[in-house]
Amino acid sequence: MKKWSLIFLVLILTSCGQDAERLLGDWKVNSQYYKATYQFAEEEGEIIAKVLYYNDGTSKYHWNKREPWLLSSKIEQDKPFFVDASTGATQQISQIKFQLLAKDSLEMSMTAFNGVSKEIWTKVENLKTDNK
């Protein structure tokens, strides 16, 4: 019995790590309202979400390490979602959740002011940017 419990525990821990690995990388937003590219990266043992590019027709931003825009400074897994776990995030008016849909897509949902906004993001390979 102990053997099966150990195997089950290893499988759970491995699957959590695999999901986090799938989340890491650059993601492009499929939205009719704005254009954006975000990056999930691991820094100092935490998963963070950086804004690499944003343009809604009024505001425009390109990654700048001296003035970084972060979507979240701490992302944690809460199966099947990844959630914004920044300090006080659960006390805020809005909440952001990410759910991996397929190898190269995820759904971002934001709850704010009693409404839910959803977007589909697509993983981008080989994005050329200086985002360090």
Account of the protein in words:
- By secondary structure, this protein is an alpha+beta fold.
- The chain has a single domain, classed as Lipocalin, CATH 2.40.128.
- It has one helix spanning 2-23; strands at residues 25-30, 35-43, 46-55, 60-62, 70-78, 81-84, 95-102, 105-112, 115-124.
- It has an eight-stranded antiparallel β-barrel with strand order 1-2-3-5-6-7-8-9.
- A hairpin with a 2-residue loop joins strand 5 (70-78) and strand 6.
- The longest helix has 22 residues, at 2-23.
- The model is unreliable at 1-16 (pLDDT under 50).
Total domains: 1
Overall form: globular
End-to-end separation in angstroms reads 47 Å
CATH architecture: Beta Barrel
In what order do the strands lie side by side in the largest sheet?
Answer: 1-2-3-5-6-7-8-9
Query: What is the CATH third-level topology name?
Result: Lipocalin
Q: How does the SSE layout of this entry go?
A:
Layout: H1 2-23, E1 25-30, E2 35-43, E3 46-55, E4 60-62, E5 70-78, E6 81-84, E7 95-102, E8 105-112, E9 115-124
Antiparallel strand pairs: 1-2, 1-9, 2-3, 3-4, 3-5, 5-6, 6-7, 7-8, 8-9
Features:
51% strand, globular, 132 residues, eight-stranded antiparallel beta barrel, alpha+beta, 1 helix, disordered N terminus, Lipocalin
Short description:
The chain is an alpha+beta fold. Helices cover 17% and strands 51% of the residues.
